[in-house]
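Exercise 7 asks you to align residues with tokens for two separate proteins.
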Amino acid sequence: MATEPTSADVAQFCEITSLDPMLDRNLVVSALKSNTSLDQLIGEYYENSDAFRRKYTWDDTAFGAGREGEPNNTGIAFNIEAPDNAVIHGVTPPPDNGFYGPSAGAPSRPPSRTNNRSPLGAPSSAEQYEEDLQRAMAESKKAVGYDPQEAGVTDTGTNAPYFGPANRSDYDQNNWAMVTTATTSSQAVVDGDPTPSARKRDEGAPAFLIYKPNARSASQRLGSVLTILHEIPLARNVLLQAGEQAASYGHNSEWWKGQPIYAPHVLAAIQQGEHQWAENSKPDFHEELHRLMAFLDLTERSYGSVEAMADLIPKSNFSLERQFYDTLDEKTDVEVLKPLTHLARPLSLQTLEPTQEPTRFAFLNFELTKSQYEQTKTLYDAWNWIVWHESMTWAEVQPNMGMVVLDDMGEVMTVNIDGEDPPEYLEIPEVWYPERYLESRKEEARICQEHLAWVARALYEARSREYELTKWIDPKTDKIHDKGEMLLNTLKEYERHVDYLDGLGRFRELQKLENEDEKQYIRLEDVPCVKTEAEEALAKSAQQVVDRCSWELSQLEETKKRLDWERERLLERQKLLSSTLLTDPDKPGLAKPFTSKKFLLRGIATSQNVTYVCKRAGPALIDIGEAPAPVDQWWRLSYEAGSANPAKAEKYSFDQVMRQVHRETKGPLLVYATEDAMNTPASPLSDALQRFARAENKNFRQELNQETTDEGAQLRNTNMSPISPSKRKYRSGSVDSMATNRASLGNSDTNSRAGDFDSDPFGEGDGTTDTDMTGLAARQSATDTASRNLAEVVRSGKTHNAEQAYNTNPPSILGQQKLSTPTPIDGVEDISRTVTPDGEEQPKGPEMQERAGGGGGSPFMARHSIYGMTHDPRDEQKTIKMMDMEIPDEHQQLQD
């Protein structure tokens, strides 16, 4: 029995979902008692709030319903006979509006034929034809919930109805509005995934993993990390070898969207209603990792979701990418994971001896401060702050300081630029050498740190001298002033004083002239300057200040130029020590050759659903007789929800990648790999993983065919009303169903499968309805074929070689239009759709085949009535073997 949720849980759920704590309390309590986690309930509510309310709202009408769920207002708890509705040839019978949908009728015998007309009894008069036509239209409207139309203006009051033309007074002008009659294409893209044809993988393009917009960890970049690691053969092999290989990886038609695939025993317990959700109920971490690698290997889709994997990673304050590596390290054997990990060993700068136990890591996060990032220009600078932290911070080398060296390095390195305000531009090398940080270079590393410390001190002293030279602090106000600006302002001020005194002496001489015409046309500059003794003294003093300020400014500029020259030389030396020294193995003058491997940049993750990955194409021969040279191609893989074409795979050059990366983010996630990692042969997928990938591709082909079928049906129905109900809406897929009119239409299987729409019983028509029904019959036949194919399991005894199993290009879909079958069209999509490979289906009667055609009683499969079906003990046996599925591929069988 489920435990009663606390008031705090109810209040928390209501606060997150904005539900009313009083009015919706019973709904929230019912949801929390379902043993579902709070995060899943919140996601379920935001995905579809109406479905959430229907699922967890108590409804006791089933206790008063009949056997098949129909309402029973007479007090009788059972019905012996099915309703005797008159049969109109080719018309959908009316529903009974039962609790569980249309009534299936009595299971013991066919409906009474007393009042049913024979199919051969076609209308013999125009009056009878008109009566049947009006009746058929009324039944069709009733089936889709339309009220009968009345002519004129209806009035529900006491006044007698008035039949006549509608006048302006009969309408409220404020009630008119523009509404949409169907979901627009843009809205369809925002609300869900694009059409299957828009999700098809381009030839040669890599598949990638994304987060959906409503995912619970949508801000992380785990999908990008796994996509990049998959394009590194050695990393892919490691992830496939991690953990134990499963005999079966199950199947779920919604797995590519992020739905989990549960273990068979969990599904069996869920089906029996005995399962209590716990940590061990989740899918296996390694199995999910294997599924993702197989998906990226062989999928025909352009993208898939990584949400199922994200749900298996424990939540913490660290990023999801770091938690993934920590979980992988915790659950995986050390030797298996060794190619992805590296050893960091702390040493003493004085003795160069270890001071602490070494630490093995696979993911490195650069969490630098703002001041450190201000001095960081390249990726090597960021590494210096990590491994030479103490000497870089204090700008000196002391005996008690330490450093970190790298040892026992793997083949793949993953780093993340993080911290406080990273620089707008960080130089990211395409080739990175860790030579200077190796334990074998610890002597050179100490010398390099000593030189860097000396350069840092010299730069500090140069900045201090420049500060003292250019700044002046007012002792009264402690305000800092720029000396250059102060000298320039003083110079201009005293120059104005000198000019004023000079002008004053000239003006007095001008006033002494007696000729007014001469005064008017003479220039002031042409008048001699005659000053008094006091004015001469003031002018001389002001001129001395001007001369001194000019000299001080010239000296200041000279000193600044000299300091700038020294600082440029120091910065060049610092760049040589921090970013250039021991980074080029071909540089002449090396004391000893490089021992580290060359790491190549293989991928960059910038944001949630944007990944830059370098895909290695097949080798190409440059000249005849030469060794093949690998060809690398950069791709930009992006998913933009809401656009007409959300999934894009674009080819980029490395220069384009660098420009785009710096536009998109200041904190990229980088993945480097060695040449050995890239040249490692890819290990083949296991038979179970190949079956899983083929089943997934089969499901996608059915989606493609379903899209083609729907488009064809829309073209056939262009002359029909868009709101016209299907004429076979309530007909079962069984030929021998007694819940439909087929029992009254005769016992011909052929006629029953086609719905007897090949002939026109009324002797006339335009052929539109016949074409529509023929298309629906063909769709039903294709669906039956799809069901038979899904129920078959073919265990392949053929082992694929490494190249075939690791072909990351989308497999050929030759003959897809002929061989693939559409998905069911009943509108019910199961969550964990499985097929038992070795469980034989027991024969059933025709009626029970119809009733059990939708699957078992698992809540992760198509939902069925728990009141109208008896428990079959064979269901438990089938459920235990569920999660193994291989959908046979016809063209593969033909090739074999």
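Second protein for Exercise 7:
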Amino acid sequence: MQSVPSQAIRPLSLNASLSSYRLPIFHKFRIDSAIYRKSRNSPSFLTLRCCDGSSGGPVIAKPSWELRWNRGVQEPDEKVVALRRLFSKPGIGIDAYIIPSQDAHQSEFIAECYKRRAYISGFTGSAGTAVVTKDKTALWTDGRYFLQAEKQLSSSWILMRAGSLGVPTTNEWLNDVLAPGGRVGIDPFLFSHDAAEELKEAISKKKLELVYLYDLNLVDEIWKESRPKPPNKPIRVHEMKYAGLDVVCKLSSLRAELAGTVASAIVISMLDEVAWLLNLRGSDVPHSPVMYAYLIVEAEGAKLFVNESKLTPEVMDHLKNAGVELRPYDSILSDIKRLAAQGAHLWLDTSSVNAAIVETYKSALDKYRTNHRGRGKINNKQYDESNGLSSGPSGVYMRSPISLAKALKNPAELEGMQNCHLRDAAALARFWCWLEEEIHKNVKLTEVDVADKLLEFRSKEDSFLDTSFDTISGSGANGAVIHYRPEPENCSVVDPNKLFLLDSGAQYIDGTTDITRTVHFGEPTAREKECFTRVLKGHIALDQAVFPENTPGFVLDAFARSSLWKIGLDYRHGTGHGVGAALNVHEGPQSISYRYGNTTPLLKGMIVSNEPGYYEDHAFGIRIENLLCVQEINTPNRYGGIEYLGFEKLTFFPIQTKLVDLSLVSNDEIEWLNNYHSHVWEKLLKELGTLRVQYILHQLTVRRREQRQNSGSTSRLGRQAASVTDARGSSRRPSLSVYCPEMSTTAETERSTPTAQKGRRFGRNSDAGNSQKAVTETRVRPEYRSPAGATRAGHVLLLVHSHYSI
């Protein structure tokens, strides 16, 4: 594995002039393309068998996935019946049909008109695959959506809990339920070429045939008049002050990559890659500032396939100046055929480009080869017969270089992300202030009420565009549904005596946010506090991780899970995902996950989430999420001469400390939390416009006196933790505190250095051994009391209500 050139990963300084910025955006970073392909030789799931003494042969036990939650099996609904009628139509002739979640661009979030799987099954989660045969219906989804799918699927559907022991994959199940010679239909626009090839190979073992239905999507046929219209919203230019690099520069870098291969053009189908490369933003997809379009970049030009009615005069001029021509969105296959007919050697990322495009190219290229065989002419200047392709050129099938270039944020993008996170935190502070007061006034608020009010507060912030995903607002048991989406007709009232999980984010002109906080408005149970504390310990461990360059994300995943593992707990989702800069809230290629197939290393400038969690079915859910930026860490040593990396926080908002069980946390972890909250105050006091908001932040970060006194008093772990001594041999443990300037009349002030932040700020490169300016940190004494009403200390006014005891 090649490391990134040193000049490409120098420390990023937001004070540096963009004109002097020379970061190569397309690195000579190569990983064997086979690494990125899904394994086609994965071991199958275990099959439970037993021996029947009477017959002497094995008897296959009824699979757990056939069980229907003790409900009677219903007849399939009219949509499924109508779909099955199409199976036997002339030109179709299939025995099963697969409906994935994706659109033609393999998007996670899609326009309403492309939500075919949700339409046919009733399951609205963002990930899942539905399969309809002549007599069965089944849906696969991952652990984030098990509980949601249980609620939304009718009993005529089999829920396949993907990844669980004994649950077959889609391919394995089709091989089991279809007879040899059966035909499986798909819409090739909705499958990446790699996914379609994997499916084809897997079902061929049972002599099943994969049928590409190019001209007809069966779900669209039955959806008809009720189907929403395709989006046609205007596209806008993403200004240079936010983009950091102009389109000409990006296209030049991409063409330099092309020159290093035998490809003469690259086909780009991922919507965020098109938007990033052309410095354009749209609103075709909910929560994602992208537009439906394809892009083909050639050595001498570029063609954008888009509905021209979306283009404003400003956008038209912007594209013209960059040398980009326009083509109708639906003409992409025609242009692919044209290029193949010229013998063009196309670069296709088969993990994202759909099977319809790739198969169209291959078919047209075969015709070209047939017509030119033996003539000795190859219409491609970069083609070299010494490469062994004597019959003519073929495609270059490897990962798009844009994915990595987009993930490495430049200084302008990082500055935008920092700024939007501060505005977002201010909106969150005002919102939590409102929510806290409403709850303590015994106002009955539903989960939808809470989500709507948060949107109202965010929409008042400068440059707000949209939420970055559907807000997850879950009280009590609903918090255990990892991607829960409350609906007005069936949501719950927020219960002050249960945990409340709020996962939300926003799209601003200059950046994208994603934050999760879990709180309790009453008195949490010991179980809730222990689980919350272990999630927090994992969050802190990952935040503080230091690792050598070229470390892939899966290596760090255990940092976040270790504390939960110690008591046999875990969570069914990745720990971190990439985040775009004013783009998709979920971005690749980087991730932090237990899935070790993604070997993309974490590199400077990448943004990832840190979101461990724990979910107790039908009881509660806990998740704590911040966004982090990968930065260089100035370690005292550099073993092997390599750089060491760590994380810089982008998210600044309090973590509720009354949920922390002090008997489970170390001195260093308490210090981390105190330092984090001091930085929250330092950054947000400039943003907050009301004294009430300052008060609510104070309440979130100060533990009640009785909690400090009683924490761990009867716990074995608590007694052990209390005996831990610091480096000076003292048994005194630091208390949780809050940064609150000019409170000297009621609090003690001490000088401390936030060691967790040393050398890890944007634009700062101080050595670990150098002195660093100390931060004044105020620690509220446990015995501090305030009467109901208002108390002024300096210029900070704390509105202390009678129901609080500090």
